Each structure stands twice: as C-alpha cells, then as structure tokens.
Amino acid sequence: MYSENNYVVIMAGGIGSRLWPFSSIKKPKQFMDVLGTGKSLLQQTYQRFLPVCPRKNIYIVTHESYEELVMEQIPEMDADQLLLEPHRRNTATCLAYACYKIAARNPLARIVAAPSDHTIFREDSFYRCIFSALDSVEERDTLMTIGLRPHGAETSFGYLQYIEGKDETIKKVKTFTEKPTKEMAELFVDSGDYVWNSGIFAWNAQSIVRALRKYLPEIAENFEDLRDVFFTDQESGQIKKAYSHCKNISIDYGLMEKADNVEVILGEFEWADLGSFQAIHEGNEEKEGTNSVKANAMLFDVEDSMIVSDDPDALIVAEGLENYVVALREKVVMIVKKGDERKFKKIFKAVKKATGNEFL
C-alpha cells in the first residue's frame, strides 16, 4: 500500500555502451527519448513511481557529470534527492549509498530500487506487484526481486530459479544465472521454474543494511560512519572518500547470489529492458514496415533493421540490409548486425581503447 515509509531509488548512472553511438558518455540512454514518447526514460521512470510514495521519497543515483541533465529533466527534485557518484562503482555501491542514506532518515523505510531504462506495460499489474512486495518486506528480513515469466530464450537477461512453495506469487530463490548461452536459456524457459530477473528489488532499510554488512563488509564500512553526514554540506566530500575505497561489483554478484534470504515475487505485467538496439526495435510501435527508423533515410530492400541519426540534415541511404543497425551520431557511423548484445560492449571497449573518449 501507499505509505510515507515507502521509498524509491532510481539507478541512472550508466553510460549505455550497448547502445553506442546512439547513447554517448555525454548523454546516455536514460536521458533520451528512445521510443518517441516525448519523455526520456528517466522521466518515464520517475513519473511511474509517483503513485508508490511521496515525491520527496524518490531518490536518483547518477554520476556527478549528469547532475545538470537530471535537474533539467526533473526540476522539481530537491538537491538531497539527487545522489551524485564521483566514480562508477556498479550497482552494489550505488545501492549501498542510497539505502544507508535513506536508513539514516527513516529506519522504518521500505525501499524499491529500479533501473532507469525500463519500460512497463499493464501498469495496474505493475503497481499491484510493487505494493505486494513492499508489504511483504515491511517486517520480514528478506531481500526481494521481481521476476517475470520468460516469453523467449533471451541471452541478455539474468534468470532466477525458484523453489515452489505454498505462496502462489512469492517464492524462495534457488539460483541466479546471469546472461546465459542460448542453449542454457532455452533449457531454462522449457523447465518452467525459471523467470527473468527484472533488476527491480524491494527490501526494508534494516534488512539491506544487515545484508551489506554480512556479504559486502568492505563496501558497508565506507558508509557506516556517514549517518551524521548525510543531508549535510559534508556529504559530498565524504562520499568522494567512501567511493575511492569501494570496489566495482554488482548487487547481484556481490550480495543477492550469496544471501540465503532472497525471494522472488512473480510479476504479471509486461516489461522490457531498453538496454539494447534489439529491445528498442521490438518496443517501437511506430515501425516503417519491419524497420525502426529515426533518421532522414531512403531504404531499399531493407528488413528488420534499425536506422537512427542525430543529424536531421544527413541522408542515410541503405540497400539490401536485413537485421542490421545503422547509427549516425556526430562524427561516428556504425553499421553492425543486430543480435548478440555482448558484441556491442566489445565494440565500445575496442573503440575506447583505440581512440580514448574522442568518439564516445
């Protein structure tokens, strides 16, 4: 149920390397209107959670270089609600910062943590799931994630295997598998006891702090002594010191896969992680035939492809392509086959190694 004790943490610090060059270091995907809705992914996520908790209880964690972008897109936020990271240290450190800060303000907090690059359909079902999760974790020492029934053998998502129990929607998690091979993903889908890990979490403030102390003590100790510093002028300087001592690790690898009190609540809503060209292509309802086109383009015998450009004066002419991405941004043109999302990160890293940040 809606409560003053409900809090939301939106993670918005990534650079979206799988969407490069459409997503850039200067303006990553969460600040872009990737589906042509008139709102960025961050704006959509922020507005989606307004019915869950008071506006003042929504916190956004992002890299310090994106402070201006966040305030431009969500000007109603107070400075205390924007948590600026001096270094990218992945989701474990990001959530430790946010949850320790929230716990310092409200020890009874019930917290939802979510990425900023998701799109949700059937929002009524989404809200029922979120409120059920918050109610369930209020007085129990449990760490909860939202799982969704797979409708395909996706290899870019994480999977959870659960143990059947009396509860129809909340299950104990048995195993985590992050981004399996195609063959493994097909086995998971056929088994019936695996779900996609949405990356949306719920817990109470005390449970997550206990878990961080137990499984990630080297991260937790950097925030333990900051309780009297949060919400003061000293916070920024102390956070810089804390982050310099924190390692780069995800909340899944560092905590959720190790803890013995992890549960999954099965969601009935429709969900898409817009972290790849494939996901955006599938989510675009305004396709030109089978193609997603966000550019001044002339296409001949092109099928199931995505054409994007940030230059309305540039003309892209393509012929004979099937299942390709053609992306133009500033001084970069990328032409690559859609498919295995891992290769996009490899391409990004290779360009960075060869040219630094000049084209990123």
TrEMBL record:
What keywords appear on the UniProt entry? Nucleotidyltransferase, Transferase
Q: Kindly give the CDD domains that the UniProt entry links to this protein.
A: GDP-M1P_Guanylyltransferase
Q: Which Pfam families match?
A: NTP_transferase
- Looking at the keywords, is DNA-binding present? no
The lineage's top-level taxon is Bacteria
Q: Which residues form the Nucleotidyl transferase domain?
A: 8-286
Asked if the keyword Nucleotidyltransferase belongs to this entry, the reply reads yes
Cross-referenced SUPFAM superfamilies: Guanosine diphospho-D-mannose pyrophosphorylase/mannose-6-phosphate isomerase linker domain, Nucleotide-diphospho-sugar transferases
UniProt name for this protein? Mannose-1-phosphate guanylyltransferase
Q: Write out the GO MF terms.
A: nucleotidyltransferase activity
